[in-house]
Amino acid sequence: MSSIDLTWVIGGPQGGGVETAANIFAGACAGCGLKIFGKREYYSNIKGEHSYFGVRVSDKTIRSNVSGITMLVGFDAETLFRHVADVFDDGAIVYESDLAAMKMDEVPTLDAQFKERLKKYLASKNKPFTIQGLLDEAKERGITMYPVSFREILANLSDETKNPKIRGMFRMQNVLAVSVSLGLLGLPPDTLLKSVGSIFSRKAEIAEMNKVAANYAYNLATVKYSKFKYQLSQIPKEEHTMLVQGFQSTGLGKIACGCRFQSYYPITPASDESVFLESNEIFEVENNRPGSTLVVQTEDEISAIGMIIGASLTGTRSATSTSGPGFSLMAEALGWAGINEVPIVVTLYQRSGPSTGLPTRHGQDDLQFAIHAGHGDFPRIVYASGDTEEGFYDTAKCFNFADVYQIPVIHMMDKFIASTVSTVKRFDSTKITIERGKLLEKIEEAGYQRFTPSPDGISPRSRLGLENGIFWNTGDESDQAGHISEDPENRVHMMDKRAHKLEVALEKIPKEDQATNHGISDFCILSWGSTKGPILDAIDMLKKEGYKVGFIQIKLLHPFPTQYVQSLLSGVKTIIDIEANQSGQMGSLLNEHLDRKVDYYILKYTGRPMTCNEVFDSVKKIIDNKAEKKQVLTYGV
Amino acid sequence: MVSNVADYKTEVHNDWCPGCGDFGIVSAIQMALAEMEIPRHKAAIFSGVGCSGKTSHYINTYGVHTLHGRVLTFSQGAKLANPEMTVVAVGGDGDGLGIGAGHFVAAGRRNVDMTYIIFNNGVYGLTKGQASPTLKLGLKTKSLPEPNVNQSVNPIALAIASGYTFVARGYAYDVRQLKDLIIAAVKHRGLSFLDVLQPCPTYNDINTRDWFSGMDNIDEMTNKPRPRIYKLEDTGYDAFVHIDSPDEENEKLTQALIKSNEWDSKIPTGIFYKNEIIAPYDERMSERIPNYLENPPAYQEISSAGKPITNISKMLDALEI
């Protein structure tokens, strides 16, 4: 059996059911044991703008997207205009045949910059600025064309099932398009029908109608068209595989590790996690009453962080989830949590900034901000996850850091991870530990002081409501009881006490939690967060061509694990910094802490995630000594 | 048996200006806590930033001196996580109606079962007397270079419009009435708001203690001052929403708004509006999470011997292929 690795892309106007279609496709493939890596791209818009979903399917482990499309599905003109140029020469296009005469200027949602680029391209190929022109060019490149009249399918289906309603149900185009695709790709029909059933599981009647339509379109594809050259097939299924969206990982992690209070203000892409928590607010607890997470939607992010600080003071594990603009508003209160040694977790789903930036697009722009947010010197931990699976287990670690060091923790996630749908090994709660540090359950005697000195800088922690545990907190500098103090000696003592906790953290946090050593080599990639997937896939590709590249993924970004990273890098000749931001923010950290400079940068800040091909090409150029010091990646619509 | 007021006092040196209205408020809070016999560890005073922000340090219960304008956010979070606590939030009028105005309005919508007291003196004291949101248009208090160019916000009306279910006003120099109002506010099921007129002897040289007691307005017949402050209860005013009907609610809301507009010669104190028909936040939560109050976030067990005890297998099953 030849290996499977193809990318299927479906596009359409926002609100038109693109996501449903992609979920059916992904579900059907995953149901056949295939591995999935899918991502959604969308505009900051509710209805009408172009959104698309790309699903990469393989029989081997995949952790990233590729540059290019194996099969494109378009039932609207914009999808074709936007993506046809990206289809591989040996790829295929399934498209609504009625669209051929559409002109580029008839699509109002195509922006001027894009049209200009596409017109230049078509003009260079001597083609008119129409769908027909575009498709002719594609055909000349060798692309297999599958014109389908979805309108006709609906009409025929309506007649055959004697259900006149179906004739006008254009929303069903999505299901038809997936079904035609899977017919052409040769996936067994039963997995398709199962997937349709599970997507519409809450609405029996709609599920039934869609199953009939799916079956009809699937059969039509197998009868009317010749098979596509690349075929999908069932492979042995790995047990306990889940199809998970990235934001669900931190949500599940929070529930598992005992976060019982989450507040948030709606923001893309972070709020999906909070909605997920609210949808699962009640759960079973072993040998105990049912547990619950109180999810509070606040009036702004200032309130969101204020509430979790208040909740944490009662001993409750508490968190908020936000993105860059919201995190900016939280900066002042972050310092309050710092000076008062309150454990909180801020899950920071980064997107492209500054300001509103590219509000629905990916970016890793907030590393330096997370490290420095808030005025004054105070300790915090900044920890970054590389993918969905890490998101789950790292969430539990972040809460342990918060509790043990009595410190605010910023858990770095991003839009790429949030909107990735992928096949992941079932999360295992038994691998999680819960460490609550010096949180007190009982205080027998009077005389408790919240900020009692201790060799590790960490004082026993009372909680609101505990007898004999009364304390005071203040945003001012305070004495050991927590009352305002402007005494200069006390000030030095308290500042040093708090700062010392970070030294302790660096000693105590295991090396494997500080950074992941994916292999060391003369050429070594240094990165953090969601670039992990594209980098690992690129390294596999490079290996096949005989290139050896190392990769160190830094997870603990503050306090910076200087010693460990130094030891890992000691034999490395060339450091390649790969990040999804403009300035190479982690490179600056390296310079600051190790006094070592990055040799090459590979950066991407288009708002679109890196593909493995982009990383592959640019690393290869570096090793071949053909690269500029800084390469900027641009692939993606 | 009434607890000892002294138990609720700390030894922290109080550095408010001599004659400050804040002294009366902090005493009234201590007296109210003692009279209600609330165990010290079951009460938490949250404060904002400004002169009034220091209140939490003077009261011997849990005390959380938060950020400027944010006291309601911290205090609501604590109350929601541990509903057994008696939570009182305090702050100045600049804190609550200027920088914190958004939180003031949002809190009304939630109706969390706690109390919010604003120390209302018309100026930003700790920054040396700038005009605050409650200073009337055109007034020029001592340290203003020019008269105030902004209109004032009406805290009582704003609270009513925002959905507070208990709205009252006290006067810092009538500690007995204030103590009773605090007790009524704390006992109210829902979010209670108390606007306390608190003369600032240092920076507000217009709305002074003498002004409130009418020293500038002597009755020629009796040769006595005509006090501006009066008690609503003395006029037969009924603040309570007794029955669950829109007419009743409208009537009580409207009369409260009308009363809230009285100023200059007659300034009402007492309870303006009280409605216990509207469910507090914890009741709304209990409808979603039936055991919320008996097993609130702060008391849930989350681990056993360092291992999680939350069973997420159903959620994982739903994601399995």
Write a concise keyword list for the protein shown above.
heterodimer, A: 637 residues, alpha/beta, Pyruvate-ferredoxin Oxidoreductase, domain 3, Rossmann fold, 4 domains, 8-stranded mixed sheet, 7-stranded mixed sheet, 21 helices, 24 strands, globular, B: 321 residues, two-stranded antiparallel ribbon, 11 helices
Give a nutshell description of this structure:
The complex is a heterodimer of chains A (637) and B (321). Chain A is an alpha/beta fold.
Number of strands of chain A: 24
Which strand order do you get reading across the main beta sheet of chain A?
Answer: 6-5-4-1-3-2-16-7
Spans of at least 5 consecutive residues with low confidence of chain A: none
CATH class of chain B: Alpha Beta
| Distinct helical segment count of chain A | 21
What would you say the CATH architecture of chain B is? 3-Layer(aba) Sandwich
| CATH architecture identity of the largest domain in chain A | 3-Layer(aba) Sandwich
Radius of gyration of chain A: 27 Å
Tell me the major beta sheet of chain A: 8 strands, mixed
Q: Calculate the mean pLDDT score of chain A and round it.
A: 96
